[in-house]
Amino acid sequence: MRIDLHCHSTASDGTDTPAELVRHAATAGLDVVALTDHDTTRGHAEAIAALPAGLTLVPGAELSCRIDGVSMHLLAYLFDPEEPALLAERELVRDDRVPRAKGMVARLNALGVPVTWEQVERIAAGGSVGRPHVASALVELGVVKTVSDAFTEEWLADGGRAYTPKHETDPFEAIRLVKGAGGVCVFAHPAAAKRGRTVPESAIAEMAAAGLDGIEVDHMDHDDAAKDRLRGLAKELGLLVTGSSDYHGSRKTVALGDYTTDPEVYGEITRRATGAFPVPGAGGV
To answer: Got the DSSP string for the chain?
Structure first.
């Protein structure tokens, strides 16, 4: 089985619609794909309706968190999307994305960059607006060559000249909420140092004690040394190890299935979840 547990659609900051994403996943030879848009489950219904036969969808979301001033993302799988407490927190984070993006536009304007909110809104196309949409605007204007080039201290990285904070959930509260909704929690790309400061291993140990299920190890932003270190940490803490593409369509160079999760780990994730179930494809529409 080929299993990719971290993918984005136009419901947040990917460039494939949810329907396109699942069709592309099937073409890429995946057996299981997770839709984990930022702080939203809005793309799930479309993905399920288009799900090809032979492909299973894992409904999920990537939750925006912050601990001791460090931004981090928590992948939540197979939770009840209507559970009131987790739904309210997701909406709180999502609703703060628009004023945050407008703040980044204002900071860029002050730096002499002629980006507009209308441009960012057009790029987001109704999705959960985020920094990648602002980064794409910078690419359009020729300020940077790639979206990744915008995530530096010069521009949009944490603490960067145009960075603007938003509401982000305390990860211990996020773990509690996801567990309360019957879901499973995996720390996304925990050693992605090029994105900014990373969470110390001592904090990961505390999260593990609080119910964190796993860490994403095989990821494009982790070099071999980081992967080895994270595997050792996972073994020490009894955490599951996942691998995922973090696919964003044309917004990133990584392809669906470039990094995958072991079938036994996937099986354990499904065994632990009680809030929702993987959805087998019925042929799509």
So the answer is: --EEEEE--TTTT-SS-HHHHHHHHHHTT-SEEEE--BT--TTHHHHHHTPPTT-EEEEEEEEEEEETTEEEEEEEES--TT-HHHHHHHHHHHHTHHHHHHHHHHHHHHTT----HHHHHHHHTTS---HHHHHHHHHHTTSSSSHHHHSSTTTTSTT-TT------B-HHHHHHHHHHTT-EEEE-STT-GGGS----HHHHHHHHHTT--EEEEE-TT--HHHHHHHHHHHHHHT-EEEE---B-GGGSS--TTSS---HHHHHHHHHH--S---EE-----
Q: What is the pTM of this model?
A: 0.88
pLDDT, tens digit, for every residue of 207-228? Answer: 999 999 999 999 999 999 999 9
